[in-house]
Amino acid sequence: MKNTLIAPSMLSADFSNLKRDIEMINSSNADLFHLDIMDGVFVPNISYGFPVIKSIAKYAQKPLDAHLMIVNPDRYIEEFCKIGVEYLSVHIEACTHLHRTLQNISSFGVKAGVAINPHTSVSSLEEIIDFAHFILVMSVNPGFGGQSFIETSYRKIDQIKELITKRGLSVLIEVDGGVNKENAPLLIDSGADILVAGNSVFGSNDPLVAINQLKGYI
Ligand code: DX5
Ligand code: ZN
User: Fold this and answer.
1) Residue 5 Cα, ligand 2 centroid: separation in angstroms?
2) Which of 120, 64, 61 is nearest to 89 (CA)?
3) Could you tell which of 6, 46, 195, 199 is best to mutate to test the pocket of ligand 1, judged by most ligand atoms within 8 Å of the CB?
4) 143 — phi, psi (to 5°)?
5) 113 C-alpha to center of ligand 1: Å?
6) Cα 191 to the chain's mean position, in Å?
């Protein structure tokens, strides 16, 4: 069976008990820490910045996966890479010179991801997918945790998978938004390699069990 990576989104963590929540993820079967960075311009919300990211990095014992929902992400790529993130995604809708941006991320030895909003079609990936390590499919409109999964995302994942196979690439597909134990098996079947989960993990009575359900262990 394929090992799907689970990336709990720290946006849904309890920030007054951040260390406790980091340690919970450390002790769980989750694979990555998903960090949502929002600037209040690209998305209608502001999340958290470097002081918080550095605190998470200090205690996290699993790789960090930073998702930049900001305009002009190029300004901060070096700083994210130097903090030691392993995965770094930027939005196709926010980058004028996306090829250059991906090259910059990759030059630090960091996995470069292209995130696409729900309205962005798979055809817009055709000229860039060969240069990405992963594609992040937004399955809600970015900006907030706890929203409902957009059902047409399955079709999009299928199309991306087809493109990856046709080109013989090893690009991973990450799905972000409204992921829960009901849709996780369907997303894995469609070709998802990484599942981000905020509310379905941190809003659960037992986050460790919720992570195991997403992993398909129970
Ligand atoms: C939304 C973020 C997501 C969000 C997911 O803009 O990119 O990572 O935290 O949260 P849930 O799983 O609650 O939809
Ligand atoms: Zn995200």
Assistant:
1) 14
2) 64
3) 199
4) 140, -30
5) 16
6) 15
> Cβ distance 138 to 116 under 8 Å?
yes
Domains of the chain are: 5-215 (3.20.20.70)
Q: How far apart are alpha carbons 152 and 85 in whole angstroms?
A: 30
Please count the other Cβ atoms lying within 10 Å of the Cβ belonging to residue 20.
10
Angle between helices 18-27 and 50-59 (to 10 degrees): 40
**CA–CA gap between residue 111 and residue 183 (Å, rounded):** 26
Pick from 21, 2, 5: nearest CA to 13: 21
Q: Which helix (H) or strand (E) holds 2?
A: none
Q: How confident is the model over 150-209, as pLDDT tens digits?
A: 999 999 999 999 999 999 999 999 999 999 999 999 999 999 999 999 999 999 999 999
3-state secondary structure of 172: strand
Residue where the block lists tokens 């004028």: 96
Residues with CB under 6 A from ligand 1: 9, 11-12, 34, 36, 67, 140, 142-143, 145-147, 176-179, 196-200
Angstrom distance (rounded) from CA 148 to CA 177? 7
Q: How many CB atoms lie within 10 A of CB 206?
A: 10
Task: Tell me the pLDDT band of 2, cut-offs 50, 70 and 90.
Answer: confident
- Rg over alpha carbons for the chain, rounded to the nearest Å, is 16
pTM (predicted TM-score): 0.98
Environment class of 217 (CB within 10 Å of its CB; exposed 0-12, middle 13-18, buried 19+): exposed
